[in-house]
Specification:
This protein has about 400 residues and is α/β, with parallel strands linked by helices. Helices cover about 50% and strands about 15% of the residues.
């Protein structure tokens, strides 16, 4: 494997950031096309900037975040966090006892790594399911997590969501009858509701929900959490003890992003994705639609390459990483495998709801993607070359 350890993932990311810097310095920001769907944004105005002080900032912006966060997610009490991962960690630190179980249900494996990693940190047992038939809740369970939409935008079926809630609420072995449910709705808080017309996590009966303010909305990378007052008080206290809470500039950015959130932007990407998927598949098979774009899974990409008679010793994820680096270096197209944090999905996904996706017309984007695949086919049988492409 070329990219195997967390440290190698960080090295790959550092290489990508250097490439991005070079593109921006030589060609300008508009020659970089960030279609990760996580472009972030900071819609602050001049008056906001004067109020970003240590204590003034929270006084002003946390109350606004409460109002806007309740509108977006429901719930009684809202907390801004440095990242969604920080919200997951704070919740597990606050609610999960050492030696007890955390049960995770998600529409499709794999889980976001922050959930099992946080369990490891507190010494809790982590079990996960992507199939309702096998799902069960051990007696000593502290927390149930439902992922509303995975890293690859696989969205949960709403009936399954309801079933898990019923099982959690009726679990009688815990002292107060029922186990608290946290929904990891990083992208789901918008994908599930806007594209799939599902109710919010809180409306579906969850106690807690966390979402990423840079996923499918124009906010800074951060975690926005809401839920019942009692649980949120415990989580907020843990977050402050370990420095996981969002600082004033982040909170202000979240408030302005929530104010400007417009579901229409997501809905507009729907038609375009059918077209892109069709034109890509006519030249290179294996692309599939996501809720707001297209993707090709690493395993499918590898098998498509092998079907063309090209032999490669690279793992599926390494092929995906090499392709993401070619997309970035040769064409300025930024996707998650190039810049993701360790453990992020290796799937190359083109998100048409991203701001920059509107700059490129679909024919242009199709050509760039197909050209990058041609380059990949030329180097994929040579592990040394691919290693150079990934790490420089
Ligand atoms: C993106 C994502 C996270 C983590 O968000 P960060 O801001 O990177 O911490 C967690 N869970 C899921 C399902 C995600 O898609």
């Amino acid at each position: 494997m070329i990219v195997e350890t967390n440290i190698q993932e960080v090295k790959k990311r550092e290489n990508s950031l250097l490439i991005i810097k070079k593109i921006i310095q030589s060609d300008g920001r508009n020659q970089l096309f960030d279609i990760t769907g996580l472009s972030g944004g900071f819609l602050l105005n001049d008056d906001d900037l004067k109020l970003l002080e240590t204590y003034v900032g929270p006084a002003i912006f946390e109350d606004q975040l409460l109002q806007m966060g309740k509108k977006h997610l429901g719930g009684e009490k809202v907390l801004g966090l440095n990242r969604t991962s920080s919200g997951i960690l704070a919740t597990i630190l606050a609610l999960v006892r050492p030696g007890s179980y955390l049960v995770h249900y998600l529409p499709k494996l794999p889980s976001h790594p922050s959930i099992p990693r946080s369990c490891e940190l507190v010494g809790a047992n982590y079990i996960e399911f992507d199939n309702l038939e096998n799902f069960f809740i051990p007696d000593d369970t502290s927390l149930i997590v439902i992922t509303g939409s995975t890293m690859d935008h696989q969205v949960i079926n709403v009936e399954e969501f309801k079933q898990i809630i019923i099982k959690a609420k009726s679990h009688s072995k815990s002292s107060d009858g029922g186990v608290p449910v946290l929904v990891d709705d990083a992208s789901g808080a918008r994908l599930r509701t806007v594209i799939f017309n599902q109710p919010t996590a809180i409306e579906l009966g969850a106690d807690l929900v966390v979402t990423s303010t840079d996923k499918l909305m124009d906010g800074p990378r951060g975690g926005l959490m809401s839920g019942s007052e009692g649980l949120m008080n415990e989580i907020k206290s843990k977050a402050h003890q370990f420095g996981l809470e969002a600082q004033p500039p982040l909170v202000a950015g979240m408030v302005r992003a929530l104010e400007s959130f417009n579901p229409k932007n997501l809905l507009n990407s729907l038609e375009k994705k059918h077209e892109l998927n069709k034109s890509l598949n006519s030249k290179f098979k294996g692309f599939e639609e996501t809720p707001t774009g297209v993707m090709i899974s690493p395993d499918v990409l590898k098998s498509q390459i092998e079907e063309k008679g090209i032999k490669t010793s690279l793992s599926a994820s390494d092929i995906s990483f090499a392709w993401a680096m070619i997309l970035l270096k040769d064409h300025g197209i930024l996707t998650i495998p190039a810049v993701g944090m360790p453990g992020a999905s290796p799937t190359v996904r083109f998100d048409l709801a991203a701001k920059d996706a509107k700059i490129l017309d679909l024919d242009e984007l199709t050509d760039l993607i197909l050209n990058s695949l041609k380059t990949l086919l030329k180097v994929v049988d040579d592990p040394e070359k691919c290693k150079n492409i990934i790490f420089n």
